[in-house]
Design goal:
By secondary structure, the protein is mainly α. Helix content is 56%, strand content 0%. Helix 2 packs across helix 3.
Length: 115
């Protein structure tokens, strides 16, 4: 699939992605199906997962590159995220998510976290 047009910006693609996530009700599905004790209540589990998914889909290679998104108000608006978590917050969230075994139980990843 390709979106090529002289007037289409990269934010246009992000808007389409956000609309797709809304149509499949991804945020509510994440909220209902993934639960574990959160140390940091500033970001919900669904917000944290979406904060990880968007950069992966956008092609950012490392969590540290997410700092670009943290400073981008247009991205935060289009992604429907009130603020964007620090890379450290996301890294700690992933560690806690792996510790719970939630990803393996849901068969999202066929490997063990951390190894």
């Amino acid at each position: 699939m390709s979106f090529e047009n002289e007037i289409l910006t990269h934010f246009g693609g992000l808007y389409l992605l956000q609309q797709f996530f809304q149509n499949i009700k991804l945020r509510s599905a994440l909220t209902q199906n993934i639960r574990f004790h959160q140390i940091n209540n500033l970001y919900s589990i669904s917000d944290s997962i979406l904060s990880i998914l968007y950069p992966i889909i956008l092609g950012l290679g490392r969590i540290e590159a997410n700092i670009l998104l943290q400073q981008n108000g247009v991205f935060q608006y289009l992604a429907n995220l009130p603020t964007y978590p620090d890379p450290t917050t996301l890294r700690r969230f992933l560690e806690r998510l792996c510790e719970t075994g939630t990803l393996v139980q849901m068969q999202l990843f066929p490997f063990k976290c951390g190894g």
